[in-house]
Design a protein that fits this description.
The structure is a single chain. With 174 residues, the chain is of the alpha/beta class. It has helices at 7-17, 32-42, 60-73, 91-99, 109-117, 134-139, 143-152, 168-173; strands at residues 22-25, 53-56, 82-85, 104-107, 128-131, 158-163. A six-stranded parallel sheet has the order 1-6-5-2-4-3, sandwiched between helices.
Length: 174
């Protein structure tokens, strides 16, 4: 349970809930996942069994942590499915999970790009794109995959970018 908002939650939640794009500077552990997670869940239509939100994370560990936090926040909502797509897991199992339908996809750029290329992940109905820890994705060499994924997303989406630092490449991406 939450008693008071963290600074990033206090600043980010109002524009997020209004559907505005957002660039936020926040470190790991600042509460940003709860902020963007609540806004993603507020916008989910459970009757549509296709990805409506995509969260890109630099590592499998962070993707699993973010997905678990969103699942925890979604406990009081009926039938919201959060799927994690990362390397180190069976591609076949992930394909089956995607065929079963989901609302929010959390994953790493390499695996997400692979699913897009294989046409197992369709982003036509995407409403929200979150780039979490964008500076770490850049440091890890994922910029080409991130740009490829962003290019496949509908232009009418809400885009959220969180980064602890803002090197020139992140500013260019924004």
């Amino acid at each position: 349970s939450y008693l008071e908002m963290t600074p990033i939650q206090e600043k980010a939640l109002p524009p997020l809930l209004l559907g505005e794009d957002l660039i936020g500077q926040a470190m790991t552990g600042s509460g940003k996942t709860a902020a963007f997670g609540l806004s993603l869940l507020q916008g989910v239509d459970p009757s549509i069994k296709a990805p409506q939100s995509l969260v890109l994370c630099p590592t499998r560990e962070l993707a699993e942590q973010v997905a678990n936090e969103i699942r925890r926040l979604a406990q009081c909502l009926a039938n919201i499915r959060v799927l994690t797509l990362c390397g180190g897991r069976s591609n076949w199992d992930q394909n089956n999970a995607l065929r079963g339908g989901c609302h929010i996809v959390v994953g790493t750029p390499g695996r997400i790009a692979k699913h897009i290329r294989q046409s197992t992940l369709e982003l036509d109905g995407l409403r929200h794109l979150v780039l979490d820890e964008a500076d770490r994705m850049l440091d890890m060499g994922f910029m080409d995959e991130v740009e490829e994924i962003v290019g496949q997303c509908p232009s009418s989406r809400q885009t959220l970018l969180f980064s602890a630092t803002f090197p020139e490449e992140i500013e260019a991406l924004t």
